[in-house]
Amino acid sequence: MKRFLFLLGKRLKKVEYWLTAKLIIAVLTLLRMLPPERALNLADRIARRLGPFVGRHRLALDNLRHAYPEKSAEEIEAIALDMWGNMARLAVEYVFLDKLFDFDPEAETPGRVEVNGIDVFVKLREEAGKPHIFFTGHLGNFEFLPIAAAKFGLAATSLFRPPNNTYVADYILKTRQSAMGGLVPSQAGAALQLARVLDEGGNIGVLVDQKFQKGVRTRFFGRECLTNPLLPKLARQYDCDVYPARCIRLPGGRYRLVVEDKVSLPRDKDGVIDIAASAQLLNDTVERWVREDPGQWMWFHKRWAM
């Protein structure tokens, strides 16, 4: 009987995922019929209205209160609403990636997307054959970063964590693959795939602001959390340069991509990269970014669950 109930539960969950995915894809397909700006603004308005009724909204508010104890309830709520608007825009932007990303290194007039750190891209292009690691967080439209790198001839293989809903994950994967370089799901064997890219002198990109159950103990916004040690381990193994990069949403539906100078990862007394200290440095960098515009980060994530 227990096995029957277990199998029934799995079957029902699969049906739920399928129905949810069909609904999401149908909505995105309808929005695709609108001009990008109208579709994004509509999704933003709807998400701000519906977000407070989602269960994760309470988690977001709790996380925000811990991160900003000095802020009022009204300020906390405003950040949470900005977050829902940002996440809705990100979802809809998947179907408009080909129309939204208009950055051209040779263009004389700026477009919707601007890049700070062009000199870094040019420098790395000149270091062809040498491995590099980029890291970022779930800020703005982080999907634009590998597309920008490709504009400078820097193919990058990105590590990503697919949604739990496998049908939604397949849809997103197909959409992303059509617009950017290689993608490696965050699952068993991912580290070996990324190591192979670096071993061949390639570039990888890693999102570093999610919980990793077997991660090292670090702190983020003053609270203890677990952080994936993969990036520091790969940097130590291949002794390659590490570059922070992020996307910032600007008024008027514009975007700024910022590629910062390479970071110096902490080393121990023997000159070897210190895994725990480097993981903390990654957290500190992302926290700095989030503090600049907290409404552009995903506060509903269980980042601090131990």
TrEMBL record:
Transmembrane domains' residue ranges: none
Organism superkingdom: Bacteria
Keywords: Acyltransferase, Cell inner membrane, Cell membrane, Membrane, Transferase
Cell compartment(s), UniProt: Cell inner membrane
Record-linked InterPro entries: LipA_acyltrans
GO cellular component: plasma membrane
KW Glycoprotein (keyword) present: no
GO molecular function: acyltransferase activity
Gene Ontology BP terms: glycolipid biosynthetic process
NCBIfam families xref list: PRK06553.1
Record's protein name: Lipid A biosynthesis lauroyl acyltransferase
